[in-house]
Amino acid sequence: EWVDLSEVMEGAIHKSVFRARKKGLDIEYSVQDRLPLAYCDGNRMTQVFINLLDNAIRYTEKGRISVTMWQEEDGIKIAVTDTGMGIPEAELPYIFDRFYRVEKSRSRQYGGTGLGLAIVKNLVELQGGTIFVTSKLEKGTRFELTFPNVAETETRGEDR
Ligand code: ATP
Ligand code: MG
């Protein structure tokens, strides 16, 4: 189906904003005008965005979470960035593995099963997308997604 990913993201943010506020975190959101539709499954994308926001909120104690969406030559880009605890460089290659959790002490404190990102990566790739992460310990983490299957801009119409 052709999906407006900005609408999907707005729904996911709406579901996450209460938990963010409880920790004193704002979710900044900006989307490029006239973002084209993407060919993907809206429900699965909701799951992807909620998982990424859940992590951003859970692993951030202060600062902000920001979500941006824009278009580039190779498709729609989505970035979820936080100012949280970050991920040690040596562990970055494993965070998309099933049941992988960073640092035992951290895991005990924050709960979770270690499945979130494995599911996210699967869902993204099933829909022809890619995901990559950059992170700096104690500075923050950024997940960037690319969805190459976009509609011609014209089909978007003027109704935005
Ligand atoms: P759950 O299955 O409930 O999502 P989880 O959050 O531990 O459990 P993943 O979402 O797969 O599992 O994340 C794997 C690990 O990567 C986490 O344990 C966490 O240490 C680290 N991580 C994920 N996202 C972030 C983030 N935004 N900032 C810092 N660390 C993160
Ligand atoms: Mg998680």
TrEMBL record:
Organism the protein comes from: Brevibacillus gelatini
Compartments, as annotated in UniProt: Cell membrane; Membrane raft
Domain of life from the UniProt record: Bacteria
Protein name: histidine kinase
Domain Histidine kinase span(s) in chain numbering: 1-151
